[in-house]
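Q: what does this look like with coenzyme A bound?
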Amino acid sequence: MVPIYEKPGAVKVRPAAPGDLDAVLAIRNHAIEHSTALWTETKQTPAEGAAWLAVHLDRGSALVAEAGGEVAGFAVYAPWRELEGFRHTVEDSVYVREDRHGLGVGSALLAGLISSARRAGHHTVIADIEAGNVASVRLHERFGFEHVGTVREAGIKFGRWLDLTIMRLPLT
Ligand SMILES: CC(C)(COP(=O)(O)OP(=O)(O)OC[C@H]1O[C@@H](n2cnc3c(N)ncnc32)[C@H](O)[C@@H]1OP(=O)(O)O)[C@@H](O)C(=O)NCCC(=O)NCCS
């Protein structure tokens, strides 16, 4: 499979494949269990993960990053809202294995995802980020996302209210 973004010797970003399910699910469930990146405390079962990934594989909206021969992270985009008026706006998600944070994997994934969404003809990418997630805010700033605003107490996890920072990148 042809990589769509490659930083020589470090990280290779390529379209996700069915065989990536276990690695992707492990990263996603770790984030559900240990962070406020995903606002649920319910881990995905393998069947739920497979169904979720299959939608992305059909749409071509999932990438994985390989580093050291292993899946080090993944990124997906999905419709921001379901009504057809929102059809040119997608929401991105980037997740990197904890032991690979801060090494440029998230940047490689987001670069690939933005290119992929642009090629697919989308107009706007939205990032919905827990306001205290400085790494994700910084990652999105790095790629030119503008701060739209922060919704106070938009959600709840681990028994505390969470604020939602919304960021936006125009693609066209
Ligand atoms: C957010 C995340 C995807 C960033 O990926 P990463 O591979 O660690 O990020 P990178 O190494 O590419 O760094 C991107 C930028 O963020 C900064 N950054 C990374 N980790 C940081 C941290 N803990 N605190 C502050 N800045 C940080 C980097 O310095 C870099 O900015 P710079 O170009 O100004 O130096 C990763 O930390 C992660 O998977 N977190 C858990 C899941 C999550 O929160 N996903 C986002 C949901 S909205």
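The chain has one domain: 5-170. The pocket of coenzyme A is lined by residues 31, 35, 37, 94-96, 101-107, 129, 133-136, 138-139, 142 (CB under 6 Å).
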